Amino acid sequence: MEKLKIVFFVNKIHSINTILGFLIAFIFFLLILFKKKINFKGKLVFFFPFFVSFLATVGSLFYSEYAGYNPCKLCWFQRIFMYPQPLLFLIASFLNDKKVFNYSLVLSTFGLVIAFYHYLLQFGLVKSNDCAAVGYSVSCVKQFVAEFGFVTIPLMAASAFLLLILYSLLVLKNKIK
Q1: Helix (H, G, I), strand (E, B), or coil: what is residue 138?
Q2: Which of 57, 79, 99, 160 has the fewest beta carbons under 10 Å from its own?
């Protein structure tokens, strides 16, 4: 019973973070759209994307390893594009290497496309063969989490990928030294 309470609590926290993530992404979008300059100080430029990618990685591991939600085929593909990013940002912060934002942009774009497709698949807005039909995965349409009626695990991933994309664009547009 205690485990269920923890999972329920984490679901709420991640769902609220997802909604906040989309609000922050909208602010980033407006900053890019209106060409606002942002002054980042030194290595702090790496903190936000490290935090977002680390939280997304730990969150997915929580769901599979603690909550016992088996990842589907599409979840694995999303993980492939998210899991390297905390390490990349950590290394880049030590080397002060801003090229990491180019790499994150590519990884996150692929991840966002998969996460968004997965989200649409879960709500029946696109049709596809069931992932479980191949025999080695749970169904991609299964919703382990559906907080507030619309926040699922793929939407959580999509918000993290979108944040990383827009933040990377913001940094690259500002040509931070």
Answers
A1: coil
A2: 99
